[in-house]
Amino acid sequence: MKKLIRTTITVPEHIYKQAKVKASLVQESFSAYVTEALYEKINQIINPPLEKKMDPQQTLGVFSFGIKKIPSRKKLYETHIQRKLGR
Amino acid sequence: MKPTFSGNWGVDSNIIIYALDRKSVFFKKAEAFFNQAKGINFYITQQNLVEIEKVIISFYRIKKETVVTNLERFLSAFNFSIISPLPTTLSYYHKLLLSYSTKDVFFDFYLAATYLDNQINNFFTVNTKDFLIIKELRVVNPFSYF
């Protein structure tokens, strides 16, 4: 078993809160989540990802359907609910 | 004067749809916004992604595979983090629902609660009026600056 070290770090409150939320989302302990984040950070520096990220500009305007007005959220969901409830 | 935005921001479905559709009325503004969005950490909820796919696939008859692939590429290229409702989001939503007397706000309030419960207090949307009543959330239409 790997030796574990207990340490104290100081982080901005909003980073701490977000990390706690994300750890709970993936059902990990805070320690496990921070360890994984540090591991990923260290390995990115040593081995940058091979897959080249797509140029953001090329991901814009990929469709051409000419939307004018997007239905409101209320309408989107209510149409669905009405159909499901047979009204 | 155009303000500089930075930090963590949620993004509404309408912004993404306009950015993906080059013939949309707001495409040029969406393009300018995303190209100049340095220093912003983008967040989007899972329910927003379902809404985007629903609109594009059902209303415009675009193949599901094409929509999913292009949406994933877009989110990855702009470093979006995808967030989900938390176990505590329902009580946050109820708090909003009972605090404000506006009618027919259920779905918008649940979306706002998802962002707020994930510590995202800033939100970009075209329909600011739907969210402005929620004082906990800073709501901005980015297209009004382009």
Count of runs of 4 or more consecutive helical residues of chain A: 4
Helical content of chain B stands at 40-55%
Give me the side-by-side strand order of the main sheet of chain B.
3-2-1-4-5
* Beta-strand proportion of chain A: under 5%
Major beta sheet summary of chain B: 5 strands, parallel
Please give the number of β-strands of chain A.
0
Beta-strand segment tally of chain B: 5
Would you give an account of this structure?
The complex is a heterodimer of chains A (about 90) and B (about 150). By secondary structure, chain A is an all-alpha fold. Chain A has two domains: about 15-45; about 55-85, no CATH class. Helices cover about 55% and strands about 0% of the residues of chain A. Chain A has helices spanning about 15-25, 30-45, 55-60, 75-85. Chain A is elongated and about 60 Å long. The mean pLDDT of chain A is about 80. Chain B is of the alpha/beta class. In chain B, about 45% of the residues lie in helices and about 15% in strands. Chain B has a five-stranded parallel β-sheet with strand order 3-2-1-4-5. In chain B, helix 3 crosses helix 4 (about 65-75) and helix 5 (about 90-100) packs across helix 6 (about 105-115). The interface of A and B includes residues 14, 70, 73 and 77 of A.
Architecture blueprint of SSEs:
The complex is a heterodimer of chains A (about 90) and B (about 150).
Chain A: H1 13-25, H2 30-46, H3 56-59, H4 73-84
Helix pairs in contact in A: 1-2
Chain B: E1 7-11, H1 13-20, H2 27-35, E2 40-45, H3 46-60, H4 64-77, E3 81-83, H5 89-99, H6 106-117, E4 122-124, E5 138-140
Parallel strand pairs in B: 1-2, 1-4, 2-3, 4-5
Helix pairs in contact in B: 1-2, 1-3, 3-4, 5-6
